[in-house]
Amino acid sequence: MIRRIALLTSVVVVIVAAFAETASATDIVTAIKVKKPPVLTAGPTDPVWAKAKALTVSLTGGANFKDGKTSAAIKAVYVGDMFYMLVEYDDPTQSVRRVPYQKQTDGIWKKLRDPNDKGGDENLYYEDKLALIWNVANSIRNFNQLGCMTSCHAGEPGKPYGNKYTMSAGELGDIWHMKSVRTGPVGQVDDQYLDNTRFDKEIAPGAGRKSDPKTGGGYTNIELVNGKPEFMDRRGTASNKKSGTYYLKEDSKLSFDDGKFEPGDEVASITIAPFAGDRGDVAASMNWKNGKWTVVMSRKLVTGGKYDVQFEKLDATYEFGLAAFDNAQVRHAFHVGSLKLQFRN
């Protein structure tokens, strides 16, 4: 079995490497020095972004995107000790119904799930996401040729879509995971990292993908208590695009009052709050309009964090991978090969 899995993984790497040969050698995002920082919530309309040249990137292989494809445009600037990145990508649908609870005709509450989900592979009731993986200190072998595909391992037991981990000890990736329901509303990216931990159902269900340390905040599942969600929004409204949301902010939750809801109503299954500590290093604004997501991220050039990429040498090149998720838990669209960030005065 181990031999078969290793062989399958090797075949995947060879195939991706063949595609990577066609990737442009000019996949470079140039961060230019500016005099004042952009306003995150202004998105691409902030005049600072007019000074930066966009790199257009094709992404492929994603669930729910038309033909699995989308296109992203990336810009970057820096000022003082801060770095800023703007990413815009096409997504005709804004996905917000992340596994909500729905009241049934018999009064019972049920969490809506994709019937085809065999574990960690929700593609029907989920959120839109964007992810970047940075090659920390050039530690991940072959990242330059393959990008984040060096860490994707299909055909392994435990996950329908495989596992994610680096191949060797000491290889480390910094993950910036933007989640439209869980982190976008509190203005943050979920700062995570990737190491060489293999999948273990009990002690490492996420394999190599882990979260940076936090001292508070974050998102927490709302459980069913006596057949009803434990909390609701203080307004007592159902979740939909007009009257409510599919997340519940921690500071606005109340004990659940079932009498406020009718059969067919949906409510959030998760509470959210800003991360405190290293996991909240990356501030962000995420906005969907007219079939396009706009994400603006900011972070200190040098954080000193153990699991963070450090932009400490402005004459160096920093490799990263990019992935977009359309209402998908893991089946993302990805760029073949690595992208590269460079700085210019």
Question: How would you describe this structure to a colleague?
Answer:
By secondary structure, the chain is mainly beta. It has a domain at 2-91 and 128-210 and 285-344: Sandwich (Immunoglobulin-like). It has helices spanning 2-20, 143-146, and strands at residues 28-33, 55-59, 70-79, 82-90, 101-103, 109-111, 129-135, 152-153, 163-164, 173-179, 190-194, 209-211, 220-221, 224-225, 228-229, 231-233, 248-249, 253-255, 266-267, 270-272, 283-289, 292-300, 318-325, 333-334, 339-344. Strands 1, 2, 3, 4, 7, 10, 11, 12, 21, 22, 23, 24 and 25 form a 13-stranded mixed beta sheet that branches. A three-stranded antiparallel beta sheet has the order 6-5-19, with no helix packed on it. A three-stranded mixed beta sheet has the order 13-20-17, with no helix packed on it. Strand 3 and strand 4 (82-90) form a beta hairpin. It is globular, with a radius of gyration of 20 Å. 42% of the residues are buried.
**Please, how many helices?**
2
Give a count of the beta strands, DSSP E runs of length 2 or more: 25
State the helical fraction.
under 10%
Which class do the helix and strand fractions yield?
A: mainly beta
Strand content: 25-35%
Radius of gyration: 20 Å
Summed over residues and divided by their number, the pLDDT gives a mean of 91
By CATH, the architecture of the domain at 2-91 and 128-210 and 285-344 is named: Sandwich
The oligomeric state of the chains shown is single chain
Unreliable stretches (pLDDT < 50, length at least 5) are 1-23
- Overall shape: it is globular
CATH class of the domain at 2-91 and 128-210 and 285-344: Mainly Beta
Report the end-to-end length measured between terminal Cα atoms.
53 Å
**CATH fold label of the domain at 2-91 and 128-210 and 285-344:** Immunoglobulin-like
